[in-house]
């Protein structure tokens, strides 16, 4: 064997040396991939993908559909096998959903909601199996109770006695549960949740009844003693009824306010009170009604009614006629003895009499109808409404349309009360809106009442004064801007006029100086004298000559230039 291993190792070594680097890398990658695949296969095959929600299959299709619908509501992914076993993704989800299904009584009867416990040894005694069973049930029950959202922690204690031969000797199975509710959950005052917890515990242990279950909180207060919750249930019922009453009153109040606000505006209508008495008692009334029998029905093709009815028909008839005439019969005793007739009647034995009796018995049949009327709770018993409507306040204007003011400086106003006819119309509208019934005892009152608008008037006066101040400020600002604009325009006009006069004076002086120079030059030329001209004078003369030449050659350009100067001036 060792030689074979040596030869195999030498052959592999020889092959490994002959292979190239690429072949060695490929072989290494293949070996690593195979090892990783085997590890993943073992890992995923050993880990279950889904766990059963209930260990027993749910054979009832309707119950299975209800559980599936509830799981869909909670957003839990699940699958149902062909045998009827429901699977969820993990154990934590299964524990949470078991608690919800038990609380809502959706677990089918005879179905265990707990995971099956497994035994690792085959040498266990019956006592050890019973202990393991009780411990498994207890731990599983604790896990399910802890999975509830409203409970932080729970402790469960079970007493499962040994089975007795006779039923009367069998001790009952008992369970005690201590819960630690989550702060602010309200679990201890919610009867529906407590009943769900009782059903959850009852389903966990075989043979456990409601009276043998004790559920307490961490303070030792028993929660499933529903006899003590009667007063609490009454209070909760009263609260719900009052809430329904308030909601109905708010609906009526909102409807009346919306409709009257369209007529009188919202600030003129005040609903002082809407009181609706409601009857929350459910009643069943049985009424027996008798009505005539129709002998001939009406023909719908004729324009007249030919219906014939009879109050009743005879079902049976019996007549009795009894007639007697004579002295009657007086029994005597045995021969040789006197009869038993009292002495008072012996004197009447010889009298002659007649007796007649007639009777008629007739049974009549009539149509009978039995009506069962069930009155649901929450019916309106009586409606009482009180409404106040304010008049109209109008501002006072003078002949020119300006607002008037009272001596205090406030805006003058006049009050116009609501007409009685309008109040009657408003009352009629409200009565029709609520379905007024006099037999029910409804009461609707609509009265005129002057509201206090002091704060409103102060606000309106303040807004008016602010508006007037803004208007005056704008007016004064516009006047000031107008004065400034006019002053600026006048200043500009005066400045331009002064500038024009100054320029005219300078031009006049320049012309005079030029005329004087030209005269001096002419006189000098005439006298034959040599005149020396300054550089500025020569430049001025050249400029004048150029301007004259330009005006002769391009008269249009010179005219345009002059127009531009005039516009700038």
Task: Provide a descriptive summary of the structure in words.
This protein has 569 residues and is an alpha+beta fold. Helices cover 47% and strands 22% of the residues. The strands form seven sheets. A three-stranded antiparallel sheet has the order 1-3-2. A three-stranded mixed sheet has the order 4-5-6. Strands 7-14-17 form a three-stranded mixed sheet, with helices on one face. Helix 7 (230-264) crosses helix 9 and helix 11 crosses helix 12. The N and C termini lie far apart (129 Å). The model is unreliable at 114-122 (pLDDT under 50).
List keywords for this structure.
3-stranded antiparallel sheet, 47% helix, flat, 22% strand, 3-stranded mixed sheet
What fraction of residues sit in β-strands?
15-25%
* H and E string: HHEHEEHHEEHEHEEEEEHEEEEEHEHHH
Unreliable segments of 5+ consecutive residues: 114-122
Number of helices: 12
Q: How many beta-strand runs?
A: 17
Order of strands across the main sheet: 1-3-2
SS class:
alpha+beta
Shape: flat
Helicity level, as a percent range?
40-55%
Largest sheet: 3 strands, antiparallel
How large, in whole angstroms, is the Cα Rg? Answer: 59 Å
Between the first and last Cα atoms, what is the distance in angstroms?
A: 129 Å
Q: What is the average of the pLDDT values? A: 78
